[in-house]
Amino acid sequence: MTAHPTTSRFKDNAHEALGDDQLQKAMLNVRAGFIDKRAAVAAKLPEFEALRDSARDIKNHTLAHLDLYLERYEQKVIEAGGHVHWARTAEEARQIIIDLCQKSDAKIVTKGKSMISEEIALNAALSKAGITPVETDLGEYIIQLRDEAPSHIIAPAVHLNASQVESDFRRVHTHLDADRDLQEPVQLLTEARQVLRDRFLSADIGITGANFLVAETGSSIIVTNEGNGDLTQTLPKTHIVIASIEKLVPTLEDVSQILRVLARSATGQEMSVYTTFSTGPRRATDVDGPENYHVVLLDNGRSSMLGTDFQDMLRCIRCGACMNHCPVYHAVGGHAYGWVYPGPMGAVLTPTLLGVDKAGHLPNASTFCGRCESVCPVRIPLPKMMRHWREAEFSRHLTPATQRFGLAFWAFFAKRPALYKNLTPWLMSLMHLLGRDKGYLRALPLASGWTDSRDFPTPQGGTFQSLYRKQKSNGRAA
Amino acid sequence: MTDQAASRRPIRVGLFVTCLVDLMRPSIGFAALKLLEQAGCSVEVPSQTCCGQPAYNSGDRANSRALAEQVIRAFSHCDYVVAPSGSCAGMIRKHYPELFADDPNLAPKARLLAGKTHELTSFLVDILGVRQVEAKYDGSVTYHDSCSGLRELKVKSQPRTLLASVQGLTLVEMNESEVCCGFGGTFAVKYGEISTAIVEKKTENIANAHTHTLLAGDLGCLMNMAGKLSREGKPIAVRHVAEVLAGMTDEPPIAAPASSTL
């Protein structure tokens, strides 16, 4: 499903997305929903901006001492009776999980929503090993039926409408009455719950992600709205947590700070409906819980971001606010980005995971409007990091030749003010003459990207500097 | 009032006109000049080309540093540097210090220049304390908040404060005035289709405000929006806010013919 990234075909993907009327309609919901809700809930909390600073500082501190906190976390998980598995790569993580499944002879695995699972393409690997993965988050369940990647990190099926979901359910849920009524979203929800209930009860293993891992207690925390994560992790005999190493935070106090900005930034809720803490397997006095508790800690390139220009990206708490506020994401949707992580956070993270040679379009396809950074709960300077990728591309000569040539041409004159001053008035007056009648040009060489859909305003003629000096020498008071 | 304003010597402002205004629409430069002089500044125009932002945002550090050094050399003697653009002022204010962070010679100079560089309307309102301009403009206008000015320099209320003093002018806010117009410098050409989709939403919001005129503080965004409005055949006059504030609206609006009746 996500094994073959199409990040290098971003432009083609975007072209298709722009022509997809249904998608365009669905994207209007993102534009309308998330933004207003976040703004309203942030405005209601006087200390919201201070909490963002605090969240940033907690994550920075953790990243500065990540080795220490990872070891402390591992120790605490073991003390609680759990197991920690270290995975350097996606391949290692998949193998660890498949081994755990095979050891307990698991046939059905229920899954809570996890972006790391998407990143390592876990479902495909499980299926190949003869294990049936069942996504239990409604959005993930829908896209699993469609064999699609999520188009948003917290709302995986945001690109779809209800009638598309209805036809998927009719296609897959063939054991149900063909004449049933599925017009209303609530009917779709009820049907998904019914189908999933059986799966929850028959699952051998439950796999969840983690929003946070707490070093102080060895706890993993999931933040959800549907309750599916709780059923995934408490009903089966074995609970496997798959999480990347930057999910660490030192203490429960730290988590409680960051939780206050997470849901507000993500969905505009003060808190999500469920915030569930798991610490080790079921204890003797617990009424429920798994018998076995495993954590798979994934690096997959993160440790190599430490100490580089991209370290700040490891603060990300996956709220999705950056894409919710991104004009490019609004225009093309998440699938155009071609892999697991879309929007501004994806534009920074994807090149680190896939290589900038494959994902170079992503950090370039930004207007640098800065709205992502202005809403990021942990204040990641996303435009700055996209610029770092552009610098990496430029120094490796990956920038397209036309752009390099255009820049070099412009810089040649801009670095020679005398030459610039002599040439530009003539050039601008010439352009002025070409478009004077209408006030604009309908086509410009090398700028069809602009003029295919927009007119290019005609210059007024001359340059400010030439006209200003002429005025001055004509006796304007100096 | 600042210390300098209180002293007898007039404030010496270097006008960084921006390459786009220099080449495409000199009238904005003259409007800025007039506004600054009306406010009592002594304005000079050092020889200049570009702030280096196109190179900077394309990942070309060498050329962006060369151009930034050129600006630092040309303007460091001024009390203030003022640009009729949030984008170029933001480049100098926010990004020059970063560009030279590891250069012990240029870092202090970059920081010094950054500290005294301002976008035009915020300079007038925040630094000089101007609240009123002497201008008249018959008609309704709507205002687009350009991204760099808004988010890097917090330019939001300043142009509105000044516009409120223009005789005959009514400001009607459009929906999503703080959302990007899709210009993004070279982005508009490199990703023309996406840029077009973004500006289409913007022109829809502009049209729904039902005003005679669209104003903004950055020529790049204005050319993008004017170019789209023109292609869509929407008869809305597009001007830089400085032109209206200076009462200099004799030149035809952006992308309008010389015979324009707008």
Describe this entry's structure for a reader.
The complex is a heterodimer of chains A (478) and B (262). Chain A is α/β, with parallel strands linked by helices and 478 residues long. Chain A contains 23 helices and 12 strands. In chain A, strands 1-10-7-4-2-3 form a 6-stranded parallel β-sheet, sandwiched between helices. In chain A, helix 3 (48-64) crosses helix 12, helix 9 crosses helix 10 and helix 15 runs parallel beside helix 19. Chain B has 262 residues and is an alpha/beta fold. Chain B has a 4-stranded parallel β-sheet, with helices on both faces. In chain B, strands 6-5-7-8 form a 4-stranded parallel β-sheet. The termini of chain B are far apart. At the A-B interface, helix 1, helix 14, helix 18, helix 19 and helix 20 of A face helix 2, helix 3, helix 4, helix 5 and helix 9 of B.
Query: Which two chains share the most extensive interface?
Result: A-B, 68 and 73 residues
- CATH H-level name of the domain at 66-304 in chain A... which superfamily? NagB/RpiA/CoA transferase-like
Number of strands of chain A: 12
**How far is the N terminus from the C terminus of chain B?**
39 Å
How much helicity do the residues of chain B have? 40-55%
What is the multimeric organization of the chains shown?
heterodimer
